[in-house]
Design a protein that fits this description.
Blueprint: E1 9-15, H1 36-47, E2 51-57, H2 61-70, E3 75-78, H3 90-99, H4 109-116, H5 118-127, E4 135-138, E5 154-158, E6 172-173, H6 176-190, E7 194-198, E8 203-211, E9 216-217, E10 221-225, H7 238-242, H8 244-249, E11 252-256, H9 264-278, E12 283-291, E13 297-304, H10 313-320, H11 325-338
Parallel strand pairs: 1-2, 1-3
Antiparallel strand pairs: 4-7, 5-6, 5-7, 8-9, 8-10, 8-12, 10-11, 12-13
Helix pairs in contact: 1-11, 3-4
């Protein structure tokens, strides 16, 4: 059994789907698939020998403040991804922890802000000469007209969501009519800016990285679209990520990537380290990219604090190189304790 060399008081923060119960008892929820990441992290921390407390977060920061004052933790394992249903507010949870001078896992408010605003992230990466899709941002209420520099086919998605929220087959557009219709859909249904970017043909890879100063790049994962007909666009919709029946029908699988030719693998690692640093990711992160048929590497987006479920990309990539799940969790914890805060 893996045991940590030093035992810490760890507070695990995670999201709830509404006001958490007064007794903060999530025993039932932690047995469900939707709470797998939380359950796996908590279980690993306990197996490592740490003293674990949990707080569910919805729309009341006072619960976090009260818990930290009443039971001061050595470190917070931060699994929150939004606050009061606003994805961009995850930065504020990290900011609160910083103000309370408590070490916490994952990225800082700066990293979360840069990565969550996909337009800002692309502008910053372009400044560093890192290839990203050509793009334009359309705010609600503004006129919707496609710039001439954006050539079809195009891909339309919400600016500030993650987990493929707001992405469906209709996100792929090849006419001005469909372009305007999808942008209006995002404005009206999701009440936020729409990001229009060129569709990049090629292999889609997920690159998991662990570290803050010294970065360890894990083996690449790839999404395969086996049953999607030749010539049809291949991309991960919300259903393609989360609906098992849909994935089976279209032969969508996440696997370890086959070897890449002509030093492409080494170039990917170098570029992804540069992305990680440019966007101020800390602790652990995942970079999503495409490799075109010509071998060009195009960064799609960066994910700070990615899902830590055992079956998800990050943990699978770590375990591929012999880093057991508990050791991975301990490493993330150690990085939090040694990071400036």
């Amino acid at each position: 059994m893996v045991r940590a060399k030093k035992r810490y008081k760890v507070l695990v923060l995670f999201d709830t789907a509404g006001t958490p119960p007064p007794d903060q008892d999530f025993t039932k929820e932690l047995k469900t698939d939707d709470w797998a990441a939380e359950a796996h992290v908590i279980s690993a921390l306990k197996k490592l020998g740490h003293e674990v407390r949990t707080v569910g977060v919805w729309d009341e920061p006072g619960m976090i403040i009260d818990e930290i004052k009443t039971n001061p933790p050595d470190v917070v394992f931060n699994l929150t991804e939004h606050f009061n249903e606003v994805s961009a507010y995850d930065r504020n949870v990290a900011g609160l922890l910083e103000m309370m001078d408590v070490p916490y896992t994952g990225s800082s408010p700066t990293g979360l802000t840069l990565c969550k605003n996909k337009g800002m992230a692309k502008e910053l990466l372009a400044y560093h000469n890192i290839r990203v899709p050509n793009f334009a941002i359309f705010s609600p209420g503004s006129s919707i007209k496609r710039p001439k520099r954006l050539k079809f086919p195009l891909f339309i998605k919400p600016l500030k969501e993650e987990g493929s929220v707001g992405i469906s087959l209709d996100s792929f557009v090849d006419s001005d009519e469909a372009f305007e219709e999808r942008i209006r859909f995002i404005h009206e249904r999701l009440n936020q800016e729409a990001l229009a970017e060129e569709y990049i043909e090629g292999r889609e890879l997920y690159v998991s990285i662990l570290g803050t100063d010294r970065l360890r790049v894990f083996p690449y994962r790839e999404v395969i679209f086996a049953e999607v007909p030749e010539g049809q666009p291949k991309f991960s919709t919300f259903k393609a990520k989360w609906d098992d029946a849909y994935r089976k029908r279209w032969g969508i699988q996440n696997v370890f990537a086959e070897p890449l030719p002509n030093g492409t693998g080494q170039r990917i690692a170098k570029i992804c380290r540069a992305v990680y640093r440019a966007l101020r990711i800390r602790g652990y992160g995942r970079i999503d990219l495409r490799v075109t048929p010509e071998g060009e590497i195009v960064i799609l987006e960066a994910n700070p604090n990615p899902n830590l479920e055992r079956k998800d990309e990050f943990a699978q990539s770590a375990m591929k190189v012999g880093l057991s799940y508990p050791r991975m969790i301990q490493r993330i914890l150690t990085l939090a304790l040694t990071a400036p805060h």
